[in-house]
Structures are given as C-alpha cells and as structure tokens.
Amino acid sequence: MSATGTDKRLSPPDIQARKGGTPLVVLTAYTTPVARLVDPHCDIALVGDSVGMVLHGLPSTLPVPLEMMIMHGQAVARGLAHAMMVIDMPFGSYEESREQAFRNGARLMQETGAAAVKLEGGEHMAETIQFLTRRGIPVMAHVGLTPQSVNTLGGYRVQGRGNDSGRVRNDAVAVAEAGAFSVVLEKVPGSLAAEITRAIAIPTIGIGASADCDGQVLVVDDMLGLFTPFRPKFVKRYAELGLEADRAIATYAAEVRARTFPAPEHVFGEDLPRSRD
Ligand code: KIV
Q1: How large is the average pLDDT for residues 67-91?
Q2: Quick check: CB of 210 below 6 Å from ligand 1?
Q3: CA 107 centroid distance within chain
Q4: Where are the domains of the chain?
C-alpha cells in the first residue's frame, strides 16, 4: 500500500478526478533508484526534459533528444509500481505538426510504458492536444514559463504579470478545452494561478505558482539539494544530499590516502567463504 492509500496504478482520468481534492504530489524522476524513492509518496513521476540539464549538464532543455527521454523513461518505469508516469516531449519533437506530435508521442508511450505525455504551449498547441487526446495519447499541458521557449521569452522570467495575465489565462483555458487532463503552471503570480485553478475544470499543477493549485511539482534533484548550479526562488530544499555526498567523498578520499580504508572487515581472508563473500 502506498502513502497515498491505494495500490491501484493511477491513470489520467484518476488524476483528472482529483480536481479540487487532495493536492496531487508530483516529482521528477530520471533513474530507477530515484523512481523507487518517489513511487510510494507521489501520484505522478514526471520524466522531465530537465534531465538534460540535471543529469547531462546541458545548458538548457533545448538540446534534449527523443532518445534521451526514451532511455530515462525506460529506467523510471522499472522503479514504479504505483505512481503514474508522465514523460516530456522534448523540444522539436511535436511543434511541427499534429502528425509529428502523434508519431513521437506514440513512440514515447510504446517504448517507455508512460501513461501520458507532457508538452509545452497554450493556445497555439490546443489543436495538437485535441488531436493527441482523441487518438489515445493523454496530454499534460505546460503553460506560463515554458523552458523550451527560453529564447523567445528572453529568459526564465515570471509570466503573466499585469497586462500579460490574460495571455496565460487564455493558454490555460485553451489547453483544458482541448482535452488536456491536467496542466502545469510554471512561474506565474500566485493570484493568477489561483484564479486559473478556479476557472478551469482540470487540475493545475504548480511550480513557482501557488499553494491554491490542485497539485505541486518540483525537480527531485533540486529539492534534495543534489542540483546546485542555480536555485530558483520556488525551490524548497527538503534535504542537502549534495553537501552530505561531498562530506562522504572527502572522507573516503582522506581514508584511502591514509590507508585506513579498506579496514580488515572489508578485506577477504584465506578461510572458507562466508555468506558475505
Ligand atoms: O522538465 C521538467 O522537469 C518539468 C517540470 C519542472 C515541470 O517540466
């Protein structure tokens, strides 16, 4: 039994039915061991294209290829028993046409076992979202700050302040009406996120948005203190595993240099094998 009180594998309609209910818990995962950690506590494990920056050291999500998403999706699937897996469609894999989006979305689902894809964009992606959802590909939409558009947005800025609020609101309404089963609201003012959450019929999942959203998502390496090159305001550090790892590695290095590791209990003797050999 998972911490969320059910052994049943959640589906996109289950997630949609959580609108206005107990907040949805979402974290990214890119590997099997982290998927195993996330699985008992989360409703959704998101194989985000942030994998490119977090695990592969890329400067943005733009260079992430479909093959990288598939490889990490397969690894995450091996670690999940309860949480629903959603996988990001990377930049360049869906924007050209509805057909291109279907072809690559189907490939992501077939080769990884993901239950849904996530794609970035609002009104201009509504037609594609409708095309995918009508053909068996559930879509989580992503509006507000859409990192794949960092170059057209001019940076990782808050979206929807002042006169710009209507644009983000219209984007959220459009993806909901197109059939998305949920929508990520990234880096939008709290009051706008709350207003959108009240206005649309699908769950909103906030990141740098508002506690009034229907759920929250964070990059797992951010909240564990494992990814440190930069730290957006919306990241709360629930652990400092990077510091802990640094201490452990420094101690190992010192012990190797001092010849205090390996100690006798880590070394094999001449006598008959025992169970830990
Ligand atoms: O790629 C990602 O990890 C994401 C989340 C931050 C929402 O899109």
Answers
A1: 98
A2: no
A3: 19
A4: 12-239
Residue 7: predicted pLDDT: 66
Q: Which residues, in sequence order, are CB contacts of 179 under 8 Å at separation 6+? A: 129, 130, 133, 134, 139
Ligand 1: nearest atom to the Cα of 120: 8
Average pLDDT over residues 158-186: 98
Tell me the three-class secondary structure of 55-94, residue by residue: CCCCCCCCCCCHHHHHHHHHHHHCCCCCCEEEEECCCCCC
Q: Which atom of ligand 1 is nearest to the CA of 218?
A: 6
Residue nearest to atom 2 of ligand 1 (CA): 48
For residue range 40-61, list pLDDT tens digits in order: 999 999 999 999 999 999 999 9
pLDDT tens string 86-107: 999 999 999 999 999 999 999 9
Q: Is 12-239 a CATH 3.40.50.300 domain?
A: no
The response to whether residue 89 sits with its C-beta less than 6 Å from ligand 1 reads: no
Choosing from 213, 216, 219 the residue with most ligand 1 atoms within 8 A of its CB, the one to mutate for a pocket test is: 219
CB 87 near ligand 1, within 6 Å: no
241-263: average pLDDT: 98
Question: Catalytic annotation on 177?
Answer: no
The answer to whether the CB of 112 is under 6 A from ligand 1 is no
Asked if residue 158 lies in contact with residue 206, where contact means CB atoms within 8 angstroms, the answer is no
Q: Tell me, what amino acid is at 213? A: C
Residue 166: its H or E element: helix 165-178
